[in-house]
Predict the 3D structure of the following.
Amino acid sequence: MAASLRIIPRGCGIGVKHNRFSYTKLKNHNVSYLNFKRNASVIAGIPKKSFDYCYNLTRQNDYEHFLCSLLIEKNLRAAAIVLRAYNIEIAKVTENVRDPIRGQGRFTFWRETLDEIYNPKGQIPQTPVVQLLNWVANEFKISKIWLSRMIDARESNPASRFNSLEDLDNYYEQVVSSMYYVFLELHGVKDVQADHAASHLGRCYGIVSFLRAIPATASKGNILFPNDLLAKHSVSQEDIRRGKNSKGVSDIVFDIASVANSHLLKARSLKDKVPKNAFPVFLPSVFCDDYLKNLQTVDFNIFEPSINRRRYLFHKLLLQKFRKTY
């Protein structure tokens, strides 16, 4: 699969030209205006304490998508935060629960919770995320299939280990793209081209997240690179733990980043066919683009410390929003 995808040229970094006119428009923009006003006038009819929990959970655990949520339509922001909080709760099952039996129990809880939410006579557990997910699902007519799909994908691969690059790619289509499909529904978009673009961007963002996590997981002795790439480049897990065969590791990272880049290019190639009101869903492309370009400048050395430092990209999100593009 990977061989047929366009790849990133290796070598020097990609220069970025700044649009002076667009940045001038943003110069005096009051960023604080975009923050949630967490009171009844903005999120009327939902419990403030429950929303505060979702708000803080998302801000602390998924800051990039949190920022994107600040820039969508005002009446959708609270729902976006709740959906992100749901995604975090599902992800935390595999990240925090080491006992497989307990993990299965948590997934079962969420699966049964969705059944109750989509049952008109269902009994809704009174936890903050569930309470507000019930509101979002019914208020905005969110399809159950995508929410269930995220649970099924994470439960099927709790250790996030992959035999092939294709397995990695498909996993993130289920885990990340499914959430982007939900956000298209949140925006009232039902369009095949938008779904197609969301599929590619979800895969890209998922793969970028995977690459970002490699240094932290490797430091704990967990090597998550797909087995087929380890074999292709003659790299052993012990080599990575000991910091050996750096060229082989960079080659693996290059292959994975190339797939992510090809998905980003494909998503962008569809933007002329995607409805304009769907564009806020594609704001995360800013983070994908930035990471892949920076990874290229260090010749795909994923252990370079500067790669994973938090970068201030809110101005780029604003610029993309005002340009109505992605």
Summary: The first helix runs from residue 20 to 27. Residues 1-35, 37-42 have pLDDT under 50 and may be disordered. The two ends are 25 Å apart (CA to CA).
